Amino acid sequence: MSKSKIKLRLTDWLLEIFGAAGMILLVLLPILFINKLPDTIPVHFNLLGEPDRYGSKNSIWALPAIGFFLFMTIVFIPKLLIHFGNTDFDSWEKSFRFLNAMRMVRIINMLTVFMFCSIVYYTILVSLGNPTGLWNFSTLFFLLLIFIAIAVFLIKNKRRK
């Protein structure tokens, strides 16, 4: 398979679109709530989801900035690998492994963006004094999903041998 023959499938396009939608949400959440936030908000939480460090309300922009940097970095990994890498595959199996790995990267990217969205939303909820319930475990949930995605793709690749 040559460089010109690498085409994204519908699933890959959807993962890219959902990731981009997550990035938009990650920026919109602070925009929508910045005027409602108190001057001091939590900027870090302990393992129980309790705030343990505070900062100004403008600190809410740190997570979208970090999320944007990670998102853009991970979006360009597949593009750089295709552009600079050896993508002249001599077998269907090599092509499958490469495309499968790139799909895993897209899934991890999308999950990471939504994890950042959940952290921003949780920060907003706590800042506004709303009860959070199980929401403080959302980060652990997204981390678990990321590890499950990695495990599934590694198993899928191993079965192709």
Structural notes for this entry:
With about 160 residues, the protein is mainly α. The protein has one domain. The chain is built from four helices and two strands; from the N terminus they run αββααα. It has helices spanning about 10-35, 60-85, 90-125, 140-160; strands at about 40-45, 50-55. Strands 1-2 form a two-stranded antiparallel ribbon. Strand 1 (about 40-45) and strand 2 (about 50-55) form a beta hairpin. Helix 2 runs antiparallel to helix 3 (about 90-125) and helix 3 packs antiparallel against helix 4 (about 140-160). The chain starts with 9 loop residues before the first helix and ends with a helix. The relative contact order is 0.16. The mean pLDDT is about 85.
* Main sheet strand line-up: 1-2
Helical residue percent band: 55-70%
- Estimated structural class: mainly alpha
Measured between the Cα atoms of the first and last residue, the distance is: 19 Å
